Amino acid sequence: MNLNLKNPIAFIDLETTGINVAKDRIVEICIVKVHPNGDEEVKTLRVNPGMPIPAQSTAIHGISDEDVKDEPKFKEVGKMIAKYLEGCDLAGYNSNRFDFPLLAEEFLRADIDFDMKKRKFVDVQTIFHKMEQRTLVAAYKFYCNKDLEGAHGAEADTKATYEVLKSQLDKYDVLENDIEYLAKYSMQNNNVDFAGFIIMDENGIETFNFGKNKGVPVEKVLSDQPGYYSWVMNSDFPLYTKKVLTEIKLRGFNK
Question: Is residue 230 packed enough to be buried (19+ CB in 10 Å), middle (13-18) or exposed (0-12)?
C-alpha cells in the first residue's frame, strides 16, 4: 500500500557518536523523501561530529574518526538539510525518542531555525511495538519477508523503515492511510519537549516532570521560583528543552 500523503514525508535515520541526545552528535544522516505523487528521493551524507567517535559506537555503525575527518560539520550542511525538509512531515524508527530530538539539538547548536512544531511525526517502531513487539530487523522480516542487509547503516535502515510502514498499512485494516492519524498513533507520551522534562497533564497544562517540581505547572514554578529558570538554562538539559521553557516564560510576559 502506498502512503496517502497531503505533504511530503521524510524518513530519517541517524548514526551518531552515542545515545545522549544533549551531548552526542550526528556522523551520518539518511533521508528518504516521499512526495504525494509517490516519487522518492534519497539523500545520504556523513558529518564530522567535531568529537571522537567512541569505539562502541563504531562497532555498531562501522563509521570511524578516519571516515569522517574530511566531512563537513553539521553547521556547514544544516541549512541545506533544513531546506530539504521544508514542508515535510517526518518519520523514522524509534525517531520520536532519539532521531528527532537529536536532530533538533543539532539544528539549535547550529543556530538554524527549524520549527519542529509544524510537523507530524510518525514513529514506525511505536506502531510495530503496539502490534508485534519486535526490532527493526525482525520487523523487516515479519512485514516484508526479507532479510535486512546492511542493518545499522543509515540508508539500509531508513529504506527498510519506509518499506515496513507501507507493509503495516497493508497488513492492518485498523490503521488509516493518513499521516495525521499515523502520527497520533505513533505517540507514546504527552511530552512538550522531546526529552520529557516538560509534559502536558490531564488538563492540558504544561507541567514539570522531574525533580522537586514534578507535577507542578511550569508557569507556576517560573512565577514562584524566579531562579529556577536560570538553573535549568545553566544546567545540562537538552537545548530543545531550554527552548520550550523559554517559550513558556516569554508567553507569560504577554498575559
Answer: exposed
Name residues whose C-beta falls within 8 Å of residue 11's C-beta, 6 or more positions apart in sequence: 31, 32, 33, 34, 91, 92, 158, 159, 161, 162, 165
Alpha-carbon distance of 158 to 29, in angstroms, equals 9
Q: Does residue 26 contact residue 49 with C-beta atoms inside 8 Å? A: yes
Read off the pLDDT of residues 192-241 as tens digits, 9 standing for 90 and up.
998 889 999 988 899 999 999 999 999 999 999 989 999 999 998 999 99
Amino acid at 95: S
What residues contact 74, with CB distance under 8 A and at least 6 apart?
25, 26, 47, 49, 106, 109, 110
- The residue with cell 507556576 is 220
**45 vs 62: CA distance, rounded Å:** 15
In the chain, the amino acid numbered 172 is Y
CA pair distance 144, 139, nearest whole angstrom: 8
φ, ψ dihedrals at 215, nearest 5°: 90, -5
Whole-structure pTM value:
0.69
